[in-house]
Design goal:
Blueprint (H helix, E strand, L loop, with lengths): L3 H4 L7 H11 L6 H11 L2 H14 L11 H13 L3 E4 L18 E6 L8 E6 L5 H16 L3 E4 L5 H8 L5 E4 L13 H9 L2 E5 L12 H11 L2 E5 L6 H11 L3 E4 L10 H8 L3 E2 L3 H12 L28 H9 L6 E2 H8 L3 H13 L3 E4 L3 E4 L4
Helix pairs in contact: 2-4, 2-5, 3-4, 3-15, 4-15, 6-7, 6-12, 9-10, 13-15
Length: 385
Amino acid sequence: MGSDSARRKGIALTDRQRIAWLRLIRSDNVGPATFRDLINHFGSAEAALDALPELSRRGGSTRAIRIATIADAEREIETAHRFGARFIGIGEPDYPSALRQIDAAPPLIAAKGDLGVATLPAVGIVGSRNASISGAKFAAMMAHEIGRAGYSIVSGLARGIDAAAHRASLETGTIAAMAGGLDQPYPPENIDLLDQICSGRGLAISGMPFGWEPRARDFPRRNRLIAGVALGVVVIEAAARSGSLITARLAGEFGRLVFAVPGSPLDPRCEGTNGLLKDGATVTTKPQDVLQALAPISELDLFSASEADEPGGDDGVERPLAPPPNDDERLVIIQALGPTPVEIDDIIRHTGLAASSVYLVLLELDIAGRLERHAGGFVSLSMMD
């Protein structure tokens, strides 16, 4: 394994920066990708916050944008402290190393527990909530042996396979990725398990605000955290249409290894895993299958902060900004967009305008709620536009 000191790279945010970052990500129409672009363009979260109203107006919004206040951010930070948690920024040493590398990584995560677990290379183990006895036992055996080899085990705190994997790795290191706020665990039956994770060799993480009750559309975000934190994901008993397959798909998109445990073709819980095998996932029948495949990756320090796709420093120094595009240039860029996702580089080539102008107009549309962002850096006009 790469040394712990090699993995713990980054620069800590000041208290003022942390408040500004939290305000920015909690403001209207600012998601992770938009957050990154704003800081890279304006130089700091504070400068970006100041620019939001004008960006929204230029983007065509007729309503005032809601910007999280300093008091809002301070309240959430105080709530986290009372809960025994803290917010970690993407460039800080305790931010999970592999997660930094994914497209649109969360700029801030709330974390509670042993932060040292976040610096270990991680393996995701996911699968059916309605797991069979043999499936749960196999998940526990895999988690125990992979944990003993020096990896943390990341999963989604669900019943079934997730819970079995967490319990088996409580002593070696486990990470629970959550769909809601850290204070809103789901399902309720696993609250005791979450307490064991956070009080021992484990960590709970979330990109959602405290008090946020998880809804159906929040679980793909949790799956994204699992796939992003892990170097590889093991799928055990997954039905044809399941969240575990979303995690596997995201893992593939992030360049992670995908492992699948074969199951009976007569068991609907195995239809998804058997499908993954047909699509090229690694056949997995023992822990060594995972450990041997990941060894060349985990030995390297692939995820240093200097290589991460993260906001460009937030050094508090405002960038000298070029004048915004004129109305004619703005119209050309907007007319190049439509409901079909396109690559930003294609917009630049099509319009013949400077990349800085194109990116700024896209930011304006984004902040005004008129832009949709898609995987792989594609964008489109909102269907509501």
